[in-house]
Amino acid sequence: MLENIEAIIFDLDGTLVDSMWMWGAIDIEYLEKYNHQPPKELEDTIAGMSFSEVAVYFKEQFGIPDSIETIQQEWVDMARDKYINEAMLKPGAGKFIEYLKGTDIKIGIASSNSSELVREALVARGIADAFTEVRTCCEVDSGKPAPDIYLFVAKLLGVDPTNCLVFEDIPMGIMAGKSAGMKVCAVQDDFSAHQEVEKRELADYYIDSFDKILDNSYEVL
Q1: What was the pLDDT predicted at 193?
Q2: Most exposed residue of 3, 53, 83, 94, measured as fewest CB within 10 angstroms of its CB?
Q3: How far apart are CA 9 and CA 183, in angstroms?
Q4: What is the pLDDT at residue 24?
Q5: Which has more pLDDT, 127 or 43?
Q6: Among candidates 180, 152, 156, which has minimal Cα distance to 168?
Q7: Is residue 1 part of a domain?
Q8: Confidence at residue 107, expressed as pLDDT on a 0 to 100 scale
Q9: pLDDT for the residue numbered 40
Q10: In this structure, are residues 220 and 204 in contact, taking their beta carbons and an 8 Å threshold?
């Protein structure tokens, strides 16, 4: 999997850290203030959108009176403690990152989350210094499945997209990596378990633990 790879770009939520579970609860709590219940398809609808794009969607879809900036800050405030204390690394992720630090492979983050929460999650897990670039979809024109964020991070890392490997947990993210011309490894996550067949169809590799990379037991799709 790592042959001829010069850079690895990770998604954060559901890929490096087990955090997707918290957003459903946050959406319910947030929308209850405005007498709304999240529609069943909400999480799939907003999957891959940037933090800013999701705020715009909520404002327009549910008639939220607050500004986009206020909506985003409230979400950050609601999620911060969970990211610091509860969003643990996915199985084998810490060991894999330590391995990469001993190689010439550059590593970066390309997340749809807010930059503040991404940084706090990485610091809390003690891995922030491992990443050369930590970027979010709010810094590019379009969120996933557009390739913008992956092309942006690859450019900052100084690596041709064809020599990049992406790790992603949802179909929208996998499509973003593939559209950027990169190899993509799909990562198992309970939140996207109902999309496993689609993930396997889109990706080049599949893992349920980052340990599978180091012991060469990952799946080639």
Answers
A1: 94
A2: 3
A3: 10
A4: 86
A5: 127
A6: 180
A7: no
A8: 98
A9: 86
A10: yes
